[in-house]
Design goal:
The protein is mainly alpha-helical. The chain is globular, with a radius of gyration of 20 Å. The chain has one domain: Orthogonal Bundle (ABC transporter involved in vitamin B12 uptake, BtuC). It is built from 14 helices and two strands. The longest helix is centred in the first third of the chain and has 36 residues, at about 50-85. It has helices at about 5-25, 35-40, 50-85, 95-110, 120-135, 145-170, 175-180, 190-210, 210-220, 220-225, 230-255, 260-270, 275-300, 310-325; strands at about 140, 140-145. It has a two-stranded antiparallel ribbon with strand order 1-2.
Length: about 325
């Protein structure tokens, strides 16, 4: 069996597992719904109004949001790792997530009348953070991996201070934003799904067209230049796509860490470094990982609903330390 067939089969299997997990997740909760009844409801062969409400208005939007946002963040992390030439790069560690979060929090707390502009604000904040990290990490001989990490730490610290200040200044409005700050999918319904879906589709299409550029840049600046490519132009293009996908995710459910770090590593292990396979594999795995985290958070600790962002931090923190030790940073 060829490598191409092997990679394609693994991707298809992962997408299939994600769909199966989505159906299982829809059935889990305070009211358990058997899989046959879920399928009957989805395909309109039952008239159970209670199941219709639970599935279509409560659980399915949340499940689809988890899948979409997991895919967004995983693709964003994979592209940032190509741009920065650093396997430890991801939207959270490079400050993109926290930069977007600050701008969103400004609108949520200080200017709630402008909530329609939250996706744009998130994109601007994430882009600004990426520019700061990129400029600090750039050296004459390329980008320094360790400087990316340190720059990301600095940007995250500044953003954390800004969010702390906003929390104190607008403490009376803070309860409405607490779940969002922890990366929670609780109470997210069809409105959130309809808001993010068009943006996500645009980002996915753009990332597909950027696969060739990602493969070129991962080979190194010298090779890319020898092929006649404008290296900095490629970096800007891939960074814009990565920031866009991460920012719309932050705008919808808040800060989710480590998905963009863990998932591309898992995908690379399974299908290799060719972005023709790495990107769709990251997409499928990202959807699966965040779906499992969200489902676990709302079922394993019931009646409490633990935000997916907290679970990902608990899992991702030790994994990040393992990667740093393994790679000698």
């Amino acid at each position: 069996m060829t490598r191409k067939m092997t990679s394609g089969t693994i991707i298809i299997i992962t997408f299939a597992l994600t769909i199966v997990m989505a159906i299982v997740a829809i059935g889990l909760g305070s009211v358990r719904i058997p899989i046959p009844e879920i399928l009957q409801t989805i395909f309109g062969t039952t008239s159970e109004d209670v199941h219709n409400t639970i599935i279509f208005d409560i659980r399915m939007p949340r499940v689809l949001l988890a899948m979409i946002i997991g895919a967004n963040i995983a693709i964003s992390g994979a592209l940032l790792q190509a741009v920065m030439g650093n396997p430890l790069a991801d939207p959270g560690l490079t400050g993109v997530t926290s930069g977007a979060a600050v701008f969103v929090l400004v609108i949520m707390l200080a200017m709630p009348e402008y909530t329609n502009f939250i996706p744009i604000a998130a994109f601007i904040g994430g882009l600004l953070a990426a520019l700061i990290v990129y400029s600090l990490a750039w050296k004459r001989n390329g980008i320094s991996p360790i400087t990316i990490i340190l720059s990301g730490v600095a940007v995250n610290a500044l953003a954390g201070g800004a969010m702390g200040y906003l929390s104190i200044m607008y403490s009376d409005r803070l309860p409405a934003a607490v779940q969002w700050m922890n990366g929670s999918l609780a109470a997210k319904g069809n409105n959130s799904l309809y808001m993010i879906l068009p943006y996500a589709i645009v980002g996915w299409i753009a990332s597909i067209f950027a696969i060739r550029k990602a493969n070129i840049i991962r080979m190194g600046d010298q090779v890319a230049s020898n092929l006649g490519e404008k290296v900095n132009r490629i970096r800007i293009l891939l960074s814009l796509i990565a920031v866009f996908l991460a920012a719309i995710s932050v705008a919808t459910i808040g800060m989710i860490g480590f998905v963009g770090l863990i998932v591309p590593h898992m995908a690379r292990f399974l299908v290799g470094s060719n972005y023709k396979y790495l990107l769709p594999m990251s997409m499928a795995l990202g959807a699966l990982v965040l779906l499992v985290a969200d489902t676990g958070g709302r079922t394993l600790f019931a009646p409490m609903d633990i935000p997916a962002g907290i679970l990902m931090a608990v899992i991702g923190g030790p994994y990040f330390l393992y990667l740093m030790r393994r790679r000698g940073f």
